[in-house]
Write the C-alpha cells for this entry.
Amino acid sequence: MLRPRWLGLLVVLVGIIISFTLLGLWQLSVARDDATAQAVADAPQEPVVALTSLLQPHSGFPAVASNRRVSAVGHYDPTGQVLVPDRRLGSATGSWVVTPLVVDETGARLPVVRGFVRATTAPAPTTTGPVTVVGSAAPGESPDPTTPSLPAGQLGSVDLGRLVNLWPGDIYNAFVFAISETPDASAAVVPGGSATVGAIERIPPPPAPSGLTLRNAAYALQWWVFAVFAVYMYARMVREDHQQRLAEAAAPDPVPSPTPATTAGATRP
C-alpha cells in the first residue's frame, strides 16, 4: 500500500471523498431549504391561527411562519403609523401603510401593513376601538440606508429594529399584510390594483416558491453512495494487488530445464 502508485491513488481518493461529502451536504441543505419553502407555499391553505399561538414578543421568527394566516385582536395606535415609500403594486408606485396594532393578549405592538397608497399621505384607522385583524405573517425587512434622508413618518423598509425605537413597549419580531379587519378600520379600503388615488389598497402577500425536497435528498444520498463506492473500489484494488504479490512471493522458483550434454570430440559412429 505504500507503493507510489497506491499513495497517488489514495490522494485522489481523499479528494473524491471530500468533494462527494460536500456535494451531499449541499444537496441536503437544499432539501431542507426546499422543505421550508414548501411549507411556506402551503401556508395560505392552512387554517387561520391565533397570532399568540405562533409568535410571542421578543421570540425569533420561525421560517415556517412565513405566509401563514394569523389573527390578532387589539386596537390600532394611529400615532405610530408610518409609510414605506417606493413600493409597487402592479404597475403603480406608492407606499405601504404600516400601523401598530396593540395586541390585547400581550400588550405588544404588531406592525400591520394595512395596505398601499398612491399618495404621499394615508388615512389613519377609522377607529381606535377593538379590531380583529387577519393577515399573512412575514419576517422583518433588512434596514434601508436611505431611511435617515426620508421625511419624518417614513421608513425605507419594514425595519423592526427602527420601529422598536419609534414605538413604545414591546414589539413582535414580525409584521403582517392585512387581509381583513373586523370591523373595517381602514378608510376607503379597496381591492389591490384599483386606481383610486388616496384610497388604501389591499396588498396580496408575496408568492412563495415551492421545493422538491425528496429529489434533493436523493441527490445527497447519491453523492454519499458514490463516495462509499470509491472507497470500496480502492480497498478492493489494494487487496487484490497485495494478494497477487503474496502469491508471487510464495510460488517456488522455477527449475531450469536440463540441456543435452555434449562430449568434446565425440563423433558419430
Summary: The CA atoms of residues 46 and 68 lie 7 Å apart.
